[in-house]
Specification:
- By secondary structure, the chain is α/β, with parallel strands linked by helices.
- The protein folds into two domains: 3-248 and 457-481, Aldehyde Dehydrogenase, Chain A, domain 1; 252-438, Aldehyde Dehydrogenase, Chain A, domain 2.
- Helices cover 38% and strands 25% of the residues.
- It is built from 14 helices and 25 strands.
- It has helices at 39-57, 61-77, 79-90, 94-115, 153-164, 178-189, 205-214, 227-240, 262-274, 294-305, 326-341, 398-406, 421-430, 469-472; strands at residues 3-4, 6-8, 11-13, 17-22, 30-36, 121-124, 130-138, 141-145, 168-172, 198-200, 220-224, 243-247, 252-256, 284-290, 345-348, 352-355, 362-366, 369-374, 389-395, 410-411, 413-417, 435-438, 454-455, 458-459, 473-481.
- A seven-stranded mixed β-sheet has the order 15-18-19-14-13-21-22, with helices on both faces. A six-stranded mixed β-sheet has the order 10-9-8-11-12-24, sandwiched between helices.
- The longest helix is centred in the N-terminal third of the chain and has 22 residues, at 94-115.
- The chain is globular, with a radius of gyration of 23 Å.
- The mean pLDDT is 96.
Length: 482
């Protein structure tokens, strides 16, 4: 079986041990063995990045553009191959996985262009005869810690801007899905970027992640993952003076008003709640439905859910693949039981499927769950489940729907289904979320615009698009006497 090593200072370096990467659609399928590093590997990677930074930070913008564009081109040329790997290791369907890979390629090509669009300001001083220049410079060695649910897109949208703006990188991908990150690292390694500029260290978060966060030569940390870990990282970074960027999750509301197009509302809710097995931080898990449309909406959504095919992520016709791991499956199922115990009614689904239809292969499959007659204070409506589980809250009118939508510790994405311009406009302004969708699924954003939320969902500058420069650069003001 192939062993995949860490990439440190331009060389593939064995870890202290290895760990198997297992297909959640077929537990007998081991994709490969992947290195498990330790703090000494982080030290070596940071030292390499630190040594490479002086030259890379002032390197020519054309060379940076060409390298990132080459990376993007190879990703796009191999999107079906890499998408198959992603589906195999993470469990999202093959079409979704191919789409994610394509997005990673587009991100690199976008930031290749940003290399050529670096801009500043030239201003007169209030003092005669003095000029002022405002420029942006790279911040140094950046530690990137990425999650398992988007194993190539999220690494891409952190790595690409970091490199484009002249930083050096040490990335720790999620331990559950190292294959996509390793494949991306291999592409970057062959792009012409100098040794040490980009480094990959795989391993456990409590070992590799902690070592990155605590390392004195790491200038900044960008993290996507759980709230608890993110808060710990923020505290450590503040103590050491590191710049920090956190994306931590959501409990996203999807409002459905009485005047909504029922078929449209049902479809966008099904897409938001259950596709990608509900394993998206932008997924809707709270369906807030006004009184008159509530019965018809619940009935129609149950009928739509009955058509969802759960199965092997790489099989044709599969709508929803497996949950990523046994621990995640156990968590999803436990929240269904908690909701029932608190008085919610399980309308459909919510149980484990031993194996996908027709194959007999064991995987972490779960029938999507719909809980009705829930209330805003139930745990199912307060805490992030991160699985194919949705709850429905019945409200009287738009005003109550908005209040319930905003009654959460999170603020990543929020959606509304309505044919009223008045309510759509009001919701866009008053929904307490970083991203708002009108008559669209809450999950699904573009790569060239800012991504991020409010409250407990995000901390620090936005990711993606031109807004990424806020995190990956620092501002310098220079004065010149004419």
């Amino acid at each position: 079986m192939t062993t995949h090593n860490n990439l440190i200072n331009g060389s593939w370096t064995p870890g202290k041990t290895t760990s198997p990467n297992t297909n959640p659609s077929d537990l007998s399928d081991v994709i490969g063995q992947y290195a498990q590093g330790d703090a000494s590997d982080v030290d070596a990677a940071v030292a390499a990045a630190t040594a490479a930074f002086p030259a890379w930070s002032v390197s020519g913008i054309q060379a940076r553009h060409d390298a990132l564009d080459k990376i993007g081109n190879e990703i796009l040329a191999r999107k079906e191959e890499l998408g198959d790997l992603l589906a195999r290791e993470e469990g999202k369907t093959r079409p979704e996985a191919i789409g994610e890979v394509a997005r990673a390629g587009q991100i690199f090509k976008f930031f290749a262009g940003e290399c050529l669009r670096l801009a500043g300001e030239s201003l007169p001083s209030v003092r005669p005869g003095i000029g002022v220049e405002i420029t942006r410079e790279p911040i140094g060695v950046v530690g990137l810690i990425t999650p398992w649910n988007f194993p190539i897109a999220i690494p891409a949208w952190k790595i690409a801007p970091a490199l484009a703006f002249g930083n050096c990188v040490v990335i720790k991908p999620a331990d559950l899905v190292p294959g996509s990150a390793w494949a991306l690292a291999d592409i970057i390694h062959r792009s012409g970027i100098p040794a040490g500029v980009f480094n990959l260290v795989m391993g456990r978060g409590r070992i590799i992640g902690d070592a990155l966060v605590q390392h004195p030569d790491v200038a900044a940390i960008s993290f996507t993952g759980s709230v608890g870990v993110g808060r710990g990282i923020a505290e450590a970074c503040v103590k050491s003076g590191k710049k920090v960027q956190l994306e931590m999750g959501g409990k996203n509301p999807q409002v459905v008003l009485d005047d909504a197009d029922l078929a449209q509302a049902v479809e966008l809710s099904a897409q938001s709640c259950f596709y990608s097995t509900g394993q998206r931080c932008t997924a809707s898990s709270r369906l807030i439905v006004t009184d008159k449309i509530y019965p018809a909406f619940v009935q129609a959504l149950q009928a739509r859910m009955a058509k969802i095919k759960v199965g092997d992520a790489r099989a044709a016709g599969t709508d929803i693949g497996p949950v990523v791991s046994p621990a995640q499956l156990e968590q999803d199922l436990s929240y269904v039981e908690i909701a029932k115990a608190e008085g919610a009614v399980l309308a459909t689904g919510g149980s484990r499927i031993a194996c996908h239809t027709g194959s007999g292969k064991e995987g972490f499959f779960m029938q999507p769950a719909l809980l009705v007659d829930s209330t805003p204070q139930m745990r199912i409506n307060r805490e992030e489940v991160f699985g194919p589980v949705a709850s429905v809250i019945r409200v009287q009118d738009y005003e109550e729907a908005l209040a319930v939508a905003n009654d959460t510790a999170f603020g990543l994405s929020a959606g509304i289904a309505t044919t009223s311009l008045k309510y759509a406009s009001h919701f866009k302004r008053h929904a307490q979320a970083g991203m708002v969708m009108v008559n669209l699924p809450t999950a699904g954003v573009d790569y060239h615009v800012p991504f991020g939320g409010r409250k407990g969902s995000s901390y620090g500058p936005r990711e993606q698009g031109r807004y990424a420069q806020e995190f990956y650069t620092t501002v310098k003001t220079a004065y010149t006497l004419a």
